């Protein structure tokens, strides 16, 4: 499994656990908010989980363009990859 695949697997694992969603419901084209049934407090939990698992700060506007799990994966992968370049 390549690094991006490992990141996606890690994301799916903590999303399923944190938001009590069956792992098979987490699909790339799926709507993040609807699938995880996120409200505003859940987004705070999501930010904390991301920061704890991937060790980067999430900016307030980062979620504006994240609609699907694929968007979410791309966001985290790009942040992790840019962090490694520093």
UniProtKB/TrEMBL annotation:
It comes from the Bacteria. The modification O-(pantetheine 4'-phosphoryl)serine is found at residue 40. The keyword Disulfide bond does not apply. Keywords: Cytoplasm, Fatty acid biosynthesis, Fatty acid metabolism, Lipid biosynthesis, Lipid metabolism, Phosphopantetheine, Phosphoprotein. SUPFAM superfamilies: ACP-like. GO terms for cellular component: cytoplasm. Pathway: Lipid metabolism; fatty acid biosynthesis. InterPro entries: ACP (IPR003231), ACP-like_sf (IPR036736), PP-bd_ACP (IPR009081). It holds the Pfam family PP-binding. Belongs to the acyl carrier protein (ACP) family. Carrier of the growing fatty acid chain in fatty acid biosynthesis. This is Acyl carrier protein. The lineage of its organism: Bacteria, Pseudomonadati, Bacteroidota, Chitinophagia, Chitinophagales.
């Amino acid at each position: 499994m390549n690094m991006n695949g490992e990141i996606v697997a890690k994301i799916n694992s903590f999303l399923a656990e944190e938001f009590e969603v069956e792992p098979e419901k987490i699909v790339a084209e799926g709507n993040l908010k609807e699938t995880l049934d996120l409200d505003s407090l859940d987004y705070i939990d999501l930010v904390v989980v991301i920061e704890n698992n991937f060790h980067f700060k999430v900016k307030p506007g980062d979620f504006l363009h994240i609609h699907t799990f694929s968007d979410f994966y791309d966001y985290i992968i790009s942040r992790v990859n840019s962090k490694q370049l520093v």
